[in-house]
Design a protein that fits this description.
The chain is α+β, with helices and mostly antiparallel strands. The protein folds into 5 domains: 100 residues, Rossmann fold (3-Layer(aba) Sandwich), CATH 3.40.50; 70 residues, ATP-grasp fold, A domain (Dna Ligase, domain 1); 238 residues, ATP-grasp fold, B domain (D-amino Acid Aminotransferase, Chain A, domain 1), CATH 3.30.470; 113 residues, Glycoprotein, Type 4 Pilin, CATH 3.30.700; 69 residues, OB fold (Dihydrolipoamide Acetyltransferase, E2P) (Beta Barrel), CATH 2.40.50. It has 16 helices and 42 strands. It is globular, with a radius of gyration of 27 Å. It comes from Leisingera aquaemixtae. One of its GO terms (molecular function) is acetyl-CoA carboxylase activity. This is Acetyl-CoA carboxylase biotin carboxylase subunit.
Length: 658
């Protein structure tokens, strides 16, 4: 038995705050660590003790074992909870905690080592009778050997980082010609994320479901499973929407998958919270994918249907308490769905975003839970994962849970960094999701370009009306004594103004006319009439579902139930400079330049790889939009750059190499 009353949470954001809430509810004290970039983060404010550990980059802070252990000593902590990500699946960190006399709230280092290496884990699972996907897990990592093994397995194949997960170091290769470049990227990303460039290969199942089973083990030999979660809605191999139970799993299949997951945990003497991930084929066959030796991002859906606090169970098991839960005690009640709110632009290839939180209104209501890690005024940095919050809804049926989650997203408002709220709504409303007929190919098949719908004319009309009225109020204040209603009136009839707005790369000149009790807004081929005041605005008599709006300078942010958009007013004197002039290649987001793939004077074809950037732990290729010659290289590998910063200059040329 281990005794401790103070726990250091070696993490940040929403998971740090979520762990600390349970720590406080158990009558224990929490210690937060934070960086300068996270100084205004709510986890630092919530904790009983908060300790600064660096400026911003994760390598010098949340991944710096020495700083974390020093913070634990300073605070008098007796245990460390790693959350997820960062060092949560790092066996050396777990060993360092033990050497420092700290209880690591997680499995034994040996289990982390084994299950963290995909090759070794797969071999152990096959020995334990857990079904596995055919592939290559060998120690020989020579590029020619891997290429030959890929050919033996047959394309398409999946390259995966052997030492980690979360979609990092993973590439789908459909044909042999693409294998070498994909291998280089996967290795580079794996080395940056996990410190190891080794990979494994697996036969790619192109349209499976991703179904995982939550397991728990204690120091007394008990292991149980808490049902499954369906995590098939993914982009770039990272989960977006999760639910429990899976709509594709019946009681008999649940029993088989649960038994396999328990065997997997028993095979490594597992203690604490773990997740055994499977790929489920349409024929009902399932295959071991990996085991995450930590708490999962999506653990709240399991909590919602079981009524259990998984963090509390983790802490009790880490103290040496018996699990106190037999398999027959586990009851699954209702259905729960979670949506991850990311700081990313779904209309621009899901590029990660950064910036100040100008407004944050999380939803509430019966059966709705919001786990967030942001507050008003906070800067969302480019150093870390783009996850901002998780919205979870529970209902008696899957349909109930889906409707509650959609209502929660309608009420959710985030101004500042572009987020994926509108995309989540489109996913939840898609007929195939409604039917539960989903696979890991869902987003790529139905939303290949991300956010599908353009901003509707009715929202352009709202933006113009709000901007027009704000201008009226400004003029009224400056005029001194002139009634607001007279500012739009003339004895020749109603006056009109031209409001020129830009949104998502599109600019429209909108005519706003004052009419009795309303505004008429006319755009290219359309017109709408706007009535009402404040958030009770109506467009053509229909409620606009305006949740919030914010005007700062020339920037207007508008949130309706369906869309969050940012309009920029273009004054007559203002130019329309784009982020990059013709021939310039600019950074699409804040991040670090990992590689410059060309040199001055090189000829490039359309689609040629020019550079590789890393932002929020993912690597992104930057490719040439048209053929040309490299006129200048403006940055070096390793440089930290801002969105819109010029990386290279390309002199356009005809491609005569056809």
């Amino acid at each position: 038995m281990s005794s401790f009353n103070t726990i250091l949470v070696a993490n940040r954001g929403e998971i740090a705050l979520r762990v600390m809430r349970t720590v406080r509810a158990m009558g224990l004290k929490s210690v937060a660590v934070y960086t300068d970039a996270d100084a205004a983060s709510p986890h630092a404010d919530f904790a009983d003790i908060s300790i600064r550990i660096g400026e911003g980059p994760a390598a010098d802070s949340y991944l710096a074992t020495g700083k974390l252990l020093a913070a634990a000593r300073e605070a008098g902590a007796g245990a460390v909870h790693p959350g997820y990500g960062f060092l949560s699946e790092n066996a050396e960190f777990a060993r360092a905690c033990a050497a420092a006399g700290l209880v690591f709230i997680g499995p034994a280092p040996e289990a982390i080592d084994l299950m963290g290496n995909k090759a070794a884990a797969k071999r152990r699972m096959m020995a334990a009778g857990v079904p596995c996907i055919p592939g290559y897990e060998g120690a020989d990592q020579a590029a020619d050997v891997l290429a030959a093994e890929a050919a033996r397995i047959g394309f398409p194949v999946m390259i995966k980082a052997a030492a980690g997960g979360g979609g990092k170091g993973m590439r789908l290769v459909r044909q042999a010609a693409d294998f070498s470049a994909a291998l280089d990227l996967a290795r580079s990303e794996a080395l940056a994320a996990f410190g190891c460039g080794d990979v494994i290969l697996e036969r790619a199942l192109l349209q499976p479901r991703h179904v995982e089973v939550q397991v728990f083990g204690d120091a007394h030999g008990a292991v149980v499973h808490l049902g499954e979660r369906d995590c098939s809605i993914q982009r770039r191999h990272q989960k977006v929407v999760e639910e429990a139970p899976s709509p594709a799993v019946d009681a008999a299949l649940r029993a088989r998958m649960g038994a396999a997951a328990v065997r997997a945990a028993q095979a490594v003497g597992y203690q604490g919270a773990g997740t055994v991930e499977f790929l489920l084929d349409r024929d009902g066959a399932f295959y071991f994918l990996e085991m995450n030796t930590r708490l999962q991002v999506e653990h709240p859906v399991t909590e919602m249907i079981t009524g259990l606090d998984l963090v509390e169970l983790q802490i009790r098991v880490a103290r040496g308490d018996p699990l106190g839960l037999a398999q027959n005690d586990v009851r699954l009640e209702g259905h729960a769905i979670e949506a991850r709110l990311y700081a990313e632009d779904a209309a621009q290839g899901f590029l990660p975003q950064a910036g100040r939180v100008d407004r944050w209104q999380p939803p509430g209501g019966d059966g709705v839970r919001a786990d967030s890690g942001i507050v008003l005024g906070q800067q969302v940095p480019a150093f870390y994962d783009p996850l901002l919050a998780k919205l979870i809804a529970h209902g008696r049926t899957r349909a109930d849970a889906r409707q509650r989650l959609m209502a929660a997203l309608h009420d959710c408002v985030l101004f500042g960094p572009v987020c994926n709220r509108d995309f989540l709504l489109q996913v939840l409303a898609h007929p195939q999701f409604v039917q539960g007929d989903i696979t890991t190919a869902f987003i790529a098949s139905h939303f290949p370009d991300g956010l599908a719908a353009p901003v509707p004319a009715s929202i352009w009309a709202l933006g113009a009306a709000l901007m027009h009225r704000a201008e009226q109020q400004r003029c009224a204040a400056a005029a001194g004594g002139v009634a607001t209603e007279l500012l739009g009136w003339s004895n020749r009839g109603s006056l009109h103004s031209i409001v020129r707005l830009s949104c998502n790369g599109e600019t429209q000149s909108l005519q706003v006319s004052e009419e009795p009790g309303r505004l008429r807004v006319a755009g290219p081929g359309w017109q709408h009439r706007v009535t009402g005041e404040g958030e009770a605005l109506r467009v053509d008599g229909r409620r606009a579902d305006l949740r919030s709006w914010r005007l700062e300078g020339e920037k207007l942010q508008v949130a309706t139930a369906a869309r969050i958009v940012t309009f920029t007013r273009q004054r007559a004197s203002a130019g329309t400079a784009s982020a990059g002039q013709a021939g310039q290649v600019v950074a699409p987001m804040h991040g670090v330049v990992r590689d410059i793939c060309v040199a001055e004077g090189d000829r490039v074809a359309a689609g040629s790889r020019l550079a590789v950037m890393e932002a929020m732990k993912m690597q992104h290729e930057i490719r040439a939009a048209a053929p040309g010659a490299v006129a200048a290289v403006a940055v070096r590998a390793g440089a930290q750059v801002q969105a819109g910063q010029v990386l290279l200059e390309i002199t356009p040329q005809e491609d005569d190499r056809t």
